[in-house]
Amino acid sequence: MNNSEKEILDRISDGFIALDENWNFTYVNKEAAKILNRKKEEFKGRSIWKVLPYAADLGMYKEFQKSFKEQVTVTFDMYYPL
To answer: Where is the PAS domain (predicted)?
Structure first.
């Protein structure tokens, strides 16, 4: 992802994350970090299941598996108690 793409994604009001084939974060935009109450630096290169172990219980796991298996974009709403 180039710098101009990152700048655009940092300006959107939705949380956006990108993962590699090993479930490691490759990109987290500002809004996603804010929603997850963490600093962007905490994600880079780390496994989603290590950083967010509760994610599998929130329905994310099923959606992410579908995305990887079928190579499709998925969207979903997630409610997380703050």
So the answer is: 1-47
